[in-house]
Amino acid sequence: PPKCDISGKEAISALSRSKSKHCRQEIGETYCRHKLGLLMPKKVTRFCPLEGKANKNVQWDEDSVEYMLANPVRIAFVLVVHGRASRQLQRMFKAIYHKDHFYYIHVDKRSNYLHRQVLQFAGQ
Q1: DSSP string of the chain?
Q2: How much is the pLDDT for 27?
Q3: Number of Cβ atoms within 10 Å of the Cβ of 43
Q4: What pairing do the DSSP bridges indicate for beta strands 76-81 and 102-107?
Q5: 106 forms bridges with which residues in the sheet?
Q6: pLDDT for 57
Q7: What's the rounded Cα separation, in Å, for the pair 114 and 29?
Q8: Which residues in the chain show pLDDT less than 50?
Q9: How is the chain split into domains, by residue range?
């Protein structure tokens, strides 16, 4: 049994849809760790030096070229989306998009509308 009272509507919904006892146990334990603040770290240590904030609206001087990395950092984003908020998803994607990064987008199988929208803007 879980070590806390499960009251979150998303957790309750996930529990009702889970097919196995093991899955329900995982959901319960994960929810309780989240509720106790133990699921995610309080802070994340940065191991990469920060030279300055890259901004596409800033005009770079010729001197700035020497600071450009030979091997740019590549980030893999994993997005789990559901519902009908395709405009919000498009705005967020526009904010994080860079040609060197990777994107894995999982659309909940019950979100047919959003799946069609994601396919449409992913093809652009």
Answers
A1: --SS----HHHHHHHHH--SHHHHHHHHHHHHHHHTT-SS-S-----S-------TTSPPPGGGGGGS-SS----EEEEEE-SS-HHHHHHHHHHH--TTSEEEEEE-TT-HHHHHHHHHHHT-
A2: 94
A3: 6
A4: parallel
A5: 80
A6: 59
A7: 29
A8: none
A9: 1-44, 71-122
